[in-house]
TrEMBL record:
It comes from Trichinella patagoniensis. This is Bifunctional polynucleotide phosphatase/kinase. One of its GO terms (molecular function) is polynucleotide 3'-phosphatase activity. Residues 2-60 form the PNK FHA domain. The gene is Pnkp. One of its GO terms (biological process) is DNA repair. Keywords: DNA damage, DNA repair, Hydrolase, Kinase, Nucleus, Transferase. It is found in: Nucleus. The keyword RNA-binding does not apply. GO terms for cellular component: nucleus.
Length: 490
């Protein structure tokens, strides 16, 4: 039923499935000429514990304090208010059994259901079947935007529809036979900036506002499921589409993080995450402005590092000078590795140097102090053996103790410099973290290394500098396939 809150204490009884007209009539006791005779139509849906409302009047009203205009629809839950005109002729939707409606809203037992797979929250509606044509969207920027002025929203109530064309466009896609699926990054859960219950309420509120059925996949951690990595899409195809195979030629993804560069009055995007997600998934991509208004796609930059290109490098030119001799196990020598964390130093040392019988000391990974590391190097040299110091060694001060030790033993010291860029190192780090979640070193070390980096030179006391270009090697083809995906969006 609807209870009047402003024009006297009376109720309007609603019948299941029957349309009830609210406006300037005897039923509502409204005489305001700004209110049309058929201002609002409502229809009770007991199955979901809601009331379906469509605004048909000339002048706007409000539902739960948010404006509603002509031809727009909303869903009402127990306790929701309707203002036929802004601030006037207010009615409240009430259920005879409000506990059921409360469950439908807060716990989504009747209207929608939530499930969790690994770190992904999945919102499903019973009315969203499997479909071969998928209209996929990012959430923030493409469907809603924050009203607090922050790119990343912590307040679950601070949102509004991003564009006027969002609702009619989504409804058009449904009429065309598409299934609407939202893919969103919500890593604020793992950082304890967001509460899962708040996010669930927000998705239900957005669904009510749009009046368009959709599925939602939310990645809650920085892992394989977080965009631009394709984990959420793979999960959807595997278990979220009722076994129906997706037709990628007829499907697409819309996002606001398109990597667009600043041009005229157009601000640069904060990342290219959504465009790279579409590339990883093999989907056509449109920016939000393209999709809703047909605007041309401006210049953009997707990523400085493109993982597939590293496999095109000539394997004969990975080490320079190319005729550099590798260390000999029984000839005292120090090989000092240098480069970003996750630049491939440890992999190269274990794959190509350790089989030669050379001792490998990974003092940063093994949590050794500098004094402990120098002691191990000294012990190895006393035994007339070659030793590899596997560490980042980013500047002159960090390299000097090893150069001094080599001079004390009158043995050569060479620097093997791994020239992976900061972006490639971050890509490698994320790949390694996905393959080994127990990896504890934070990726912020890569940024710190960049700040203190001083390239090595022979003037420091090295006998030579050997330059290495990183090319990954894989024993499992599936690992190589994973590596080729874009991992970072900025």
């Amino acid at each position: 039923m609807l209870r009047s809150l402003s024009d006297g204490n009376f109720i309007i009884k609603l019948k299941e499935g029957e349309e009830t007209i609210l406006g300037r009539n005897l039923l509502t006791r409204v005489r305001d000429m700004r209110c049309s005779r058929k201002h609002v139509s409502v229809k009770l849906n007991n199955k979901f514990g809601i009331c379906e409302l469509t605004h048909t009047g000339r002048f706007k009203g409000k539902v739960c304090g948010k404006p509603v205009h002509n031809s727009e629809s909303r869903w009402l839950f127990h306790g929701d208010t309707v203002e036929l005109l802004t601030g006037k002729h207010i009615f409240q939707f009430q259920r005879l059994n409000p506990v059921i409606a409360e469950q439908a809203y807060l716990k989504n037992l009747e209207y929608g259901s939530w499930q969790q797979y690994d770190s992904v929250l999945i919102y499903n509606l019973q009315s969203v079947p499997g479909n071969s044509m998928i209209a996929a969207f990012d959430l923030f920027g493409s469907i809603v935007h924050g009203t607090s002025g922050n790119t990343y929203q912590r307040d679950m109530n601070a949102w509004a529809i991003s564009y006027d064309e969002v609702i009619p466009t989504l409804k058009k896609h449904v009429e065309e036979g598409y299934k609407i699926v939202i893919f969103t990054n919500q890593s604020g859960f793992s950082k304890k900036q967001l509460l899962i219950d708040d996010f669930k309420k927000k998705i239900v509120a957005i669904n009510r506002f749009l009046c368009v059925p959709f599925q939602c996949f939310a990645a809650t951690a920085n892992d394989w499921y977080q965009k631009p990595r394709p984990g959420m899409w793979e999960l959807f195809c595997r278990m979220g589409n009722a076994g129906v195979e997706v037709d990628k030629d007829k499907s697409f993804f819309v996002g606001s993080a398109a990597g667009r560069i600043e041009e005229g009055n157009v601000l640069a995007d904060y990342s290219s995450t959504d465009r790279l997600f579409a590339l990883n998934c093999g989907l056509k991509f449109w920016s939000s402005a393209q999709h809703y208004y047909g605007h041309p796609d401006p210049d953009y930059q997707v990523s400085i590092f493109r993982p597939r290109t590293v496999f095109n490098r000539n394997m004969q030119h990975l080490m320079f000078p190319m005729d550099t001799p590798l260390p000999v196990a029984d000839k005292p020598e120090i090989i000092l590795l240098c480069g970003f964390p996750a630049a491939g130093k440890t992999f190269y040392a274990k794959r190509h140097l350790e089989p030669l019988g050379v001792k490998i000391i990974s003092w940063e990974d093994d949590n050794l102090t500098l004094e402990q590391c120098l002691s191990l190097v000294e012990e190895t040299l006393r035994n007339d053996r070659a030793v590899v110091v596997d560490a980042t060694n980013p500047n002159v001060d960090s390299r000097k103790p090893f150069i001094d030790l080599a001079n004390d033993f009158n043995c050569p010291i060479r620097c093997f410099l791994f020239e992976a860029t900061q972006e490639q190192a971050l890509h490698n780090y994320i790949y390694r973290k996905i393959k080994n979640p127990e990896c504890s070193r934070p990726h912020s070390l890569i940024d710190f290394h960049k700040m203190i980096l001083v390239r090595p030179s022979v003037e420091e006391g090295f006998h030579s500098i050997v330059y290495f270009t990183f090319v990954p090697e894989f024993d499992d083809p599936a690992d190589e396939t994973m590596y080729k995906y874009y991992m970072i969006g900025k």
